Amino acid sequence: MPRAGLNGDAVVDAALAVLDEHGVDGLTLAAVAAHTGVATPSLYKHVKGLGPLRDQVGVRVLDELGARCADAAMGRSRDDALAAVLHAYRSYAVDHPQRYAALPQRPGTDPELTRAGESVVLVFAAVLRGYGVEGADAIHVIRGLRAAAHGFVQLEIGGGFGRPEKIDDSFQALVDTLVAGLHAHIDRAGR
């Protein structure tokens, strides 16, 4: 008989707690079972295994990241919206470095994971529509924006910035560069 209150969402909640405390390598079914107070085989009533659980964790993390970015863009447009989304992206990674490290970096076959990943892309796409950047051009720009933000936060959460200058100032310089680059891209395209 399943433990009272234990369901698929509660298992994902426990997996996130384990991830936050022990990192990606510490996310095991045994650790999640210990966190929930059940034997490992009892988890199979709620998840099909570690791979599917990692996918469910990825969905939750992408949904959280997408929501944070969408909230940041709300009520803003163009440069203000883009800067807010980039800052929200970074703040999520800094606030939840282990969750960010668990993000799948390539599309999977799980439709929910695909949907959740797309939710982040759609926030960037909505901001770019305010500039008149759409279609394939928007995808190219989004890839560049995400790559820049991801690279920065990977270095930051990995301790890669050892100089005394403020990291916040460095990120703002990156945001300013990305916004200016977007304007240059738009000007070249004649929009």
From TrEMBL:
It holds the Pfam family TetR_N. Residues 28-47 bind DNA. The keyword Transcription applies. Keywords: DNA-binding, Transcription, Transcription regulation. One of its GO terms (molecular function) is DNA binding. It comes from the Bacteria. Residues 5-65 form the HTH tetR-type domain. This is TetR family transcriptional regulator. It comes from Actinocatenispora rupis. The lineage of its organism: Bacteria, Bacillati, Actinomycetota, Actinomycetes, Micromonosporales.
